[in-house]
Amino acid sequence: MDASALTTEGFWAAPKLRHALDREVVIPGSKSATARALVVAALSDGPSTITGGLDARDTQLMRDALRALGVRIHTSFLGAAGDDAAFGAPGAQQSRPLTSAVWCVRPPRRFVSTGDIDCGLAGTVARFVLPIAAMAEGRTYLHGDEGMSARPIRPLLDALVDLGARIPDDAVAIPLTLTGRPDLPGGPAIIDSSASSQFVSGLLLSAARFRDGLDLRHEGATLPSLPHIQMTVDILRDHGVRVDQPEPTRWIVTPGPIRAGDIAIEPDLSTAAPFLAAAVLTDGTVRIPHWPLETNQPGALLLPLLEQLGARVQLEPATDGRTGTLSVTGPGHWDLDGFDIDLSDASELTPVVAAIGALANGPSRIRGVGHIRGHETDRLAALEADFRALGADVDQTEDGLALRPAVLHGGPWGAYADHRLAQAGALLGLVVSGVMIDDIGCTSKTMPSFPSAWWSLATGSGR
Questions:
Q1: pTM assigned to the model
Q2: Could you say which of 59, 280, 406, 424 would form a disulfide bridge with 351 (CB–CB 3.0 to 4.6 Å)?
Q3: What distance in Å separates the CA atoms of residue 159 and residue 55, rounded to the nearest whole number?
Q4: What is the CATH number of domain 12-27+269-459?
Q5: pLDDT for 132-170, tens place per residue?
Q6: Mind listing the pLDDT tens digit for each residue in 423-435?
Q7: Where are the strands (E) in 373-460, listed by range?
Q8: Residues with catalytic annotation?
């Protein structure tokens, strides 16, 4: 049986750990950083080169969307390696990324829509490309997968209308059609980003190209995923954009050029989460090379929790002075106490953290993630249903999940076309026999090689 093995019912049988875990895993580029880099490069004043970017469905959709607005993007790969190189023998010293994507991005003199953009199920594509389409000549039809219509976007549409965009009054979700306005005024706007920080990031990314820039205020009950907004601000400042933040929930962007420049993408630290959690649950060791010594990725916020749970976390700097090899050795799930954690700044970690909580010896609570009901799926409802189907004692709360100790058993695990849910199911399968995931292919959203990488992790095989 190999990484693509299915049960007779069409489920992917999550492999149970078959050996003492001691593994190095190479993680592909950050999806969030890749999306922002592509958009900034498309808006810049000249050609840019992006290296180490994630080549997966969401980033392919982003490239296609930008091409539909007149951006030229040439794709190549450097240092491509197969599974044997990326997932070799335990303890092997691999240093090259699994696949290093290189994109040469040439912005157009003016954005002109070819008429059709497929957003798939990618919030970054819908929310980051909409402001560019609002500045493009011509009409643009944005559509996506069936679940895209349920993803929140109305606050972004309302803000764009306030900034001068031509969006139909009846447009409340994707699919929608808008007519671009190359002289989009910009200026002041108020937005409620309680449902997604991507509303703020989407406006900030294009704001320097608005005639009057942007003075954006968030007014709402919460503002989740602040590190993602900081990631957006940082990349803009790196490219010469003036972004002032006189208040925690107000951003002023001065109009002007966005300076072209080469961009190197960090590994996706949230995609590393299930691999690191595997070490914690199984009393094993997992090493991640190329881990940034300094980062604004929310995925790095997992490390303090792992230490709190008794894991040994070490980061050995590399000779480049910017990255290192992260090593995590866990106590094993039988020695895990429960925890109480606020994941409002790193809500994408919720499925993996919930899997840890479901196997802990004490009650656990995840807070501050009510907004993930509007992610690829209603993640809280999906997690509650999946865990309960395997015997877990779990309930949704207003802003998260409450988990209590229980004996888990095998059974079907619904991925709901959500890569993070599929990864959480695979994580449970390391220690719970018979977990069967209905759609492991959705992990291609952030790591196309995830099934083979996970199989290698669990079985100790080279593939």
A1: 0.85
A2: 424
A3: 31
A4: 3.65.10.10
A5: 999 999 999 999 999 999 999 999 999 999 999 999 999
A6: 999 999 999 999 9
A7: 393-397, 400-404, 411-413, 435-437
A8: 348
